[in-house]
Amino acid sequence: MNTDIMEGNWKVLKGHVQEKWGKLTNDALDEIEGNRQKLAGHIQKAYGHSKEEAEKEVEEWEKDYKKRNSDRAA
User: Fold this and answer.
1) Where do the structural domains in the chain lie, given as residue ranges?
2) Angle ∠(63,61,65) on CA atoms, nearest 5
3) Alpha helices, DSSP H only, in 1-74?
4) 3-73: CATH homologous superfamily?
5) What is the pTM of this model?
6) 71, pLDDT greater than 80
7) Are the CB atoms for 42 and 32 separated by under 8 Å?
8) What is the distance between the alpha carbons of residues 52 and 54, in angstroms, rounded to a whole number?
9) pLDDT in tens, 8-37
10) How far, in Å, CA of 63 to CA of 2, rounded?
11) Is the per-residue pLDDT at 48 higher than 70?
12) Are 46 and 21 in contact (CB under 8 A)?
């Protein structure tokens, strides 16, 4: 997912992110503001994952989110 798209749609995506990573607080989500690196950093901190694991989770979530939404549009 393009960073600009994630930032531009953050209000919509925020709920999906909190659904996936429930340990992230509303304050953390407000701080992230759609920034992919900040999201991975907060996941890393909240779940004790390595940087690589957190980045991979975000990447997989983005791919799954795009797939689900492209299926709905079809």
Assistant:
1) 3-73
2) 55
3) 3-8, 10-20, 26-32, 36-47, 51-73
4) YjbJ (1.10.1470.10)
5) 0.85
6) no
7) yes
8) 5
9) 789 889 999 999 999 999 999 999 999 999
10) 11
11) yes
12) yes
Residue with tokens 């429930």: 22
Chain centroid offset of residue 34 CA:
8
* Contacts with 13 (C-beta within 8 Å, 6 or more apart), sequence order: 6, 34, 65
Cβ partners under 8 Å of residue 54, min gap 6: 40, 41, 43, 44, 47
Token couple for 40 = 């991975």
The larger pLDDT score, comparing residue 44 to residue 7, is at 44
Rounded CA separation 57/67 (Å):
15
